[in-house]
Amino acid sequence: MNASPSHRPHPAEWTETQSLLPSAERDLPAGRHQFHKEQMMARIHEDLRTSSRTSGISPVAPVKRSNPFLRRTVLLPAAAFALAGAVVGGLALTGGETDGGKNALGTRPALTTSIGVADPKGAPQLLERISLAAADTSAPTPRKGQYIYIASKTADTYIKTEGDKSEVVSDELHSRQVWNSLDGRDGWLIEAGKTSDKGITLKGDTPLTGAYDALAALPTDPDTLLQQIYRQSDAVRDPEVPRDQAAFVAIGDLLTASYPPAEVGAALYKAAAKIPGVVAVNDAVDATGRHGVAIARENDGERIEWIFDKKTLRFLGERIVVVKAAADDPLKVGTVTHTSAITERAVVDANKQLPGQAS
Fold this sequence. Notes:
Blueprint: H1 30-55, H2 79-87, E1 107-109, E2 118-119, H3 123-135, E3 147-162, E4 165-171, E5 174-181, E6 187-191, E7 200-201, H4 212-216, H5 222-234, H6 243-256, H7 262-272, E8 279-285, E9 291-299, E10 302-308, E11 315-322, E12 336-348
Antiparallel strand pairs: 1-4, 2-8, 3-4, 3-5, 3-12, 5-6, 6-7, 8-9, 9-10, 10-11, 11-12
């Protein structure tokens, strides 16, 4: 296969049906197996995009709703094969096309970083401080009919193949804007290189998991909340992925891709403190270069890091870093497989309205 993937599918392009797919052979550890499956998925995805452009056929698949309990370290490894046909709809949905590839992202050498020092004993204290900071907020409470707006910068790392040559590369850092209604049934996505400038609709009959209304209904007792997260993540995770890791990923998604009420955000951090294996990291860098402290957890040689401002403890972003690797592993120690930074989070009055813009 000679196609070169322009990107790895974003979680918003993945579906809840992955939990129903059969398991594949287990010739690699769960995380690495998933990484290589995703590369094949990205290649198939790009082939399908190219085919649709040259044949004049536009994909008309319905919008796929995202689920914060489905992420690269939680999904079934076989999902890449079965979902390749379905995910093609993610780039050319109603509301915009890819401009014949003109918006495709460029690539750069694989992102790398220095690895911060992990401190297991420091995690509970740091999370307690983060929880207090999250609870002490003056953020407005959304009203019915309003939308949650989140702007971010993001990039992923993948294996690019041209002919018989493969290399690990990273996306160019690019912008992403998401609007979601409070009930999670309506929204809009604009992502540089992956949608047109106008973007694509996120409207769907099934409410988006992690929508504000759903978050507001979550229990604020940390123990009760954590047990609920375990139950939900257990229902969809790859059996080879430890349930503690799946729960950590789920909490991270709720914090990263949503706008939790202050009391729920505080409870999520307290719940994370109860997950075994969670550590504090003395230094981590988000996608825009902001340094901070991090809360992290390692699985299968990769460490997921939630990054916070060192002074205010405001959430900055998330990254995934390879901290252990075999000699023949294409992902070397220090490789950043995913990085993101929240640049703005706000409540707006209408879909596609920017903060500060008149209704």
